[in-house]
């Protein structure tokens, strides 16, 4: 009988501590989930200088094809060329790839670099090939070429 009283005295605070830890964990998880859903990602926008330079950049030979990766996964690739017809060295060009559904509603907007980062910048009167690969497109995508909108230009 004495062992039962000792067990209940020990287990009662333990249950309270465990319940408190679980409640704090759940509250923390809820707060982090809420923050991640409502946090605005600050992406650089086109500066007035970059906006004025847009007329000097030209996309050409843009095509889209579907392939299968070595993991047997569908991959959609967009190939093309970007030309710098201006007089400035460009360090980075990023585009927003905007995919639509059958009702022309946006189902995915993904930002990717087409010049810079891995491929290097773009000198005046230079043309560079680019390839954008997508392996996680929504099922509702209308299978049409997405809109490619220049979203950022950084100069040397």
Molecular structure report:
The chain has 156 residues and is α+β, with helices and mostly antiparallel strands. Helices cover 28% and strands 40% of the residues. The strands form 2 sheets. Strands 1-2-5 form a 3-stranded antiparallel β-sheet, with no helix packed on it. The chain has a 3-stranded antiparallel β-sheet with strand order 4-3-6, with no helix packed on it. The model has no long low-confidence stretch (mean pLDDT 87).
SSE layout:
Elements: H1 2-38, H2 48-53, E1 57-68, E2 74-84, E3 90-100, E4 106-115, E5 126-134, E6 147-155
Antiparallel strand pairs: 1-2, 2-5, 3-4, 3-6
Descriptors:
156 residues; alpha+beta; three-stranded antiparallel β-sheet; elongated
Separate helix tally = 2
Strand content bin: 35-45%
What's the main sheet like?
Answer: 3 strands, antiparallel
**Average pLDDT score:** 87
Percent helix: 25-40%
Order of helices and strands: HHEEEEEE
In terms of structural class, how would the helical and strand content be classed?
A: alpha+beta
> Which regions have little confidence, pLDDT < 50, spanning 5+ residues?
none
The number of E-state strands comes to: 6
**Integer-rounded radius of gyration:** 26 Å
What is the first-to-last residue Cα distance?
A: 82 Å
How does the overall form come out from the CA principal axes? Answer: elongated
Summarize the structure.
The protein is of the alpha+beta class and 156 residues long. It has helices at 2-38, 48-53; strands at residues 57-68, 74-84, 90-100, 106-115, 126-134, 147-155.
